[in-house]
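Researcher: Please translate sequence to structure tokens.
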Amino acid sequence: MPVDVAGLRAALIAQREYTLALYADLPPRYWEPRTFPFDDLTNPPLWELAHIAWFQEFFALRWRADDVRGERILSCLNVADGLFDSSRVAHATRWRLAYPSKSDCFTYMQRVLENTLEALEKSSLEDRYGFQLALVHEDMHAEALAMTLTTRGLALPDVTPKRATLSPKYRLFTEITCAGGSAAIGARANAFSFDNEKPAHVTELAPFNIDAHVVSAGQFAAFVASSAYRDQRYWSAPGNDWRDRAMLENCRIVDAGEADAFAAMHVNYFEAEAYCRWKNRRLPTEAEWEHVAISSDEFFASTGHVWEWTASIFVPYPGFQAERYREYSEPWFHSHQVLKGGSFVTHPRLKYPQYRNFYMPGRGDMFCGFRTCALA
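Model: Translation complete:
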């Protein structure tokens, strides 16, 4: 994460170019929010791109500690707050609002970026957090844009990183042994952190063994094809409910054609949990995952194929305090599950071990998979 002006400037420009390139070949009908297919997991592309600009403008240019609603400094687009603030605009309404034209939305994005870069040149070191926050927010939304493409059955463009093959070592089912003990968890010193990573703290871990590699597509496909996938004994009660709906809707399809090369992907938490029970294993906790990622170069080198589910519910660390982006963490505590590591589409800035991704356990539209731990 850059903190100097030149580094942040280059990163903001490069990320905006990447963001726009993701949707360069979007079918024309999808640019009109009313004709973009509605679902609970995606946003109309025009709304999401303009929201990225709104967020950058708000937190890099308008937010002040004594004006957390940004009322003193107005947006350069007078309708922006009422259209693109995700905390104000309910998800279901984003398909039917009256938006500026696509051209005007793109002009808004460009003006915000130009204004941001101009302000960055005059910023102090203490001001840089807002620019960093805008940058990583765009990083996260770029992955969401890629998720939208796959949800709609569209190919990822050439600008996205390609999936890497798993190391041949995964076939050996090797494990990494951790002795346990005191583990430092949470925000890195003198580095960008989200509020949910704070405060850093020490936790005690029992000894554990964790897979040296994520579960492969072939390994997971074998589970789906087996009778165990339909055996309720391997599933939690909410997992059984999800699976019954999925089987009824015939929405669980696994492509094992690349089974020997790639990580299992688009696997939800319920499925990962059931797979572990089938194998008489378990998912790692987020503290276990984070500790071994920090302490083992071998383990950290094996990450980044897919987001990895953990056994941990997304909860605040002791002493948590919401920061300026108040809607980022606090509303989702206790209902979401933690994932770690990052996917092949995730920007490297977000692939540090302390980063906590979080999603509802029934979602598998992310680029997500898992690895297992031995039972104690």
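Researcher: Any highlights?
Model: Residues 168-374 form a domain with the paralog of FGE (formylglycine-generating enzyme) fold (CATH 3.90.1580.10).
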